[in-house]
Design a protein that fits this description.
mainly alpha, 0% strand, Helix Hairpins, Four Helix Bundle (Hemerythrin (Met), subunit A), 12 helices, disordered C terminus
Length: 293
């Protein structure tokens, strides 16, 4: 179990920095978020030559002030953390470190200060502050749908990769370097751009056969784009059904499948034996037992 630091000031600052339920902790996090936004906006506007030439000193000073503040914050987080190694190697700990490195790196590598935009990742803390990740059921359903459909999506992208490789090779043979298809790799790039309906137009077929193949690939692209959407929609609905059993049905205690009827002896999803109502976790106490069809 995580223990607070014994020193009083460490305990106080631990609560302020790492906890979000107190007034001081929430104020600290909101100030931190505003500083992150200010820093990212400063870097973006500084990339403009006109603004850079006119406000270089102000932007430079602002960036170093914010970087020093973030450096002090990072050091304090390490000091007050009960398990320092755990924080340093955590996701947020690594992001906090990456947020201050670019400014110091700019002393040795010109232009590296623009990598400061990585600080925008620190805004992910807003999900913890507002507790959105715990209470947004739609987000949980989406995560579950992505996990359940990962094999189908991998197979789908594998099929698409094979398709563009074959079509790219054919276009290289049909068009050749004269039409800009200098190699099979370039032809595959063209096939990917075409099948995704991006259509940069930097390479285009000149022969009638090549234009016919391109037309078929474009039409195929519209159908292919709909496939991942269908896969995710199906898994999303499936995950939602598991979370919300239909009236007159129950949830399997082993796998959470939510389409168990009272007369079922086995879970149709995982096959576990359902011996009593406790295993079935009846969610509607007023349901009547359905007769087998």
């Amino acid at each position: 179990m995580l223990q607070y630091p014994n020193t009083d000031w460490k305990k106080k600052w631990y609560v302020i920095i790492f906890q979000h339920h107190t007034k001081g902790g929430r104020l600290f996090d909101l100030i931190l978020l505003w500083l992150i936004l200010l820093s990212v906006v400063a870097v973006i506007v500084d990339s403009s030559t006109f603004i850079h030439d006119k406000y270089q000193v102000i932007l430079f000073s602002l960036e170093w002030l914010i970087t020093i503040a973030f450096s002090i914050e990072y050091a304090v987080r390490i000091i007050v953390s009960p398990v320092k190694r755990k924080y340093i190697l955590s996701f947020y700990g690594i992001i906090d470190l990456l947020a201050i490195i670019p400014t110091y790196l700019s002393l040795f590598v010109t232009g590296s200060q623009f990598l400061i935009v990585i600080r925008v990742l620190r805004l992910l803390r807003v999900f913890r502050i507002l507790k959105l990740s715990s209470f947004t059921s739609a987000g949980l359903f989406l995560i579950q749908a992505l996990k359940n459909s990962r094999e189908k999506i991998v197979v789908f992208f594998g099929a698409v990769l094979l398709l563009v490789t074959i079509v790219g090779t054919i276009m290289y043979l049909v068009e050749g370097p004269a039409s800009g298809f200098d190699s099979i790799a370039v032809s595959i790039y063209w096939a990917i751009v075409t099948i995704t309906t991006v259509g940069y137009g930097d390479i285009s077929p000149a022969t009638s056969l090549g234009q016919f193949i391109a037309s078929v690939l474009m039409l195929t692209g519209y159908a292919i784009i709909a496939v991942p959407t269908g896969i995710l929609s199906s898994e999303f609905n499936s995950a939602k059904k598991k979370q919300n059993p239909e009236p007159g049905k129950a949830r399997c205690k082993a796998c959470g499948f939510g389409l168990i009827r009272p007369h079922y002896n086995f879970c149709p999803h995982c096959g576990v034996t359902l011996n009593d109502t406790e295993d079935k976790q009846i969610t509607n106490q007023n349901i009547t037992e359905d007769k087998p069809e």
